[in-house]
Amino acid sequence: MQFELNASMMCANYGHLEKEVQELDEGGIDSFHIDIMDGRYVPNFAMSLNDMRYIASATKKPLDVHLMIEHPNNRIGLFLSCLRPGDTIYIHPEAEYHPSTTLQSIINAGMIPGIAINPGTSVETVMEMLRIVRKVLVMSVNPGNAGQMFLPYVGKKITKLLSMKEDMDFEIYWDGACSADKILEYAPKGVKGFVLGTTLLFGKGMPYGETLQNIRDLKF
1, 66, 156, 192 - which has most CB atoms within 10 Å? Predict the structure, then answer.
């Protein structure tokens, strides 16, 4: 079964970032997930523009940039200038007065437009944007910190999105508390990719390539 595995780089060892990127790349990661937090939209600070710029220079794999910031349209040019055509940028619709304007800027730059949906955000409130974006990042935890517990009601939201994705032409990605049982349940249903953090990938004392292969070898 084909599904994408994306490394949540806020969980990486920043004392050896070059080594982390290289080993993930060689181990078969599909993309690098970059969490940018401003301490306002979410109560935390995470990766920086310079972190993103370095990782973009250190790999040819795609980047998935998750902007957890207020009014991303005010700074979208800074992020677009560091990325390559085919990279993805997710915004949170609640963080922008006119999110479709920001999404159009991403499209015009040759990037893949996406939205991230918080656990408390209903599908109905983002319905129109589902026809604009190509990716929907479903947050199974409240954004802002790694290592949180899965919120079970998010499963119903994913089921609703799965019923709409073919008609509206978008793919669904899972972010937060991603365990093997979640991949086993939702990959066969049509979730395209999974963001891996401390639950499955980082801090396990195993080579990343071995960990990633074990995930791909799960018995469906």
Answer: 66
